[in-house]
Amino acid sequence: MRILFITSTRIGDAVLSTGLLDHLIRTYPHAKVVVACGPVAEGVFARMPGRAWTIVLTKRRFRAHWWELWRQAAGQRWDIVVDLRGSAFSWLVRAKRRYVLRGGRQPGHRLAHLGALLGLDPPPLPVAWFGPAERARAASLLPGEGLWIGLGPTANWDRKVWPAERFVALYRALTAPGAPLEGARAAVLGGPGAQERAMAAPVLAALGGEAVDLVGGLALPEVAAVLARCALFVGNDSGLMHLSAATGTPTLGLFGPSPVEAYAPAGRRTATAVAPGSPGLDSMTGLTLEMAREAAERLLAAKVAA
């Protein structure tokens, strides 16, 4: 059996699609699955069971990247084609069954849209795939038996970024004597590139030896393993936030200009802190330390979802 799964170019959307993909893998355990995604999201699927290969769609002029997909996929006969990009491509290959996500903004959470595509209600939660090598790497980066808090002070848009000094203050509040995560150390995470490094720099400078700098230096399966070791992750709306939720780590997403009703973190233990007046271009400044602290403490005190 052959399944072609066409998913996102962005990490966050790719992570959200893993629940649907995991459902297909479990339903058809002997299927060969081919994933088509953007280069940034490729690592999301690197340790996926049943993956035959990945077709990386690097964006080109005049939509030439679709010709690369055609070159690798058109000669196959597919049992199932799932197209989460709503393209016409899915109708140009031989397939017994096609599931094509309708394009455009739809009300509700992205996860619900994905589940509805296969008639799944509730929709399957995202998963994070990593293996023994990544677990060992994470254990070496975050050593010891003590607690760790993951901090994600970066995003793909600077207006989605909570002020650095509030990340630092929240970390200190949650790890102070008598606090829920007393004595925990910080793992600061972010993507590759100068922009992500610049966003994380003030937090790293303020925390100094209290934090481990993991910005831009890890493959995505390694990042997932690191997040799985954390007692809590707090981050802006980003791919890291979605990946953390997929690992099952308690995850607090901080929201301002992006629509929380569509992109809140999806997992067994998640929460959001939303700036008043959101969405709004400059709304992140309205998200106070106290609001985030209370949300984090409620999340840590809540029972694990079934």
UniProtKB/TrEMBL annotation:
CDD domains cross-referenced by the UniProt entry: GT9_LPS_heptosyltransferase
Tree of life domain: Bacteria
Transferase found in the keyword field: yes
Chain segments annotated as coiled-coil in the UniProt record: none
TM annotation in the entry: none
InterPro entries in the cross-refs: Glyco_trans_9, LPS_LOS_Heptosyltrfase
GO biological process terms on file: lipopolysaccharide core region biosynthetic process
GO cellular component: cytosol
Keywords: Glycosyltransferase, Transferase
Name recorded for this polypeptide: Glycosyltransferase family 9 protein
Native source species: Dankookia rubra
Lineage: Bacteria, Pseudomonadati, Pseudomonadota, Alphaproteobacteria, Acetobacterales
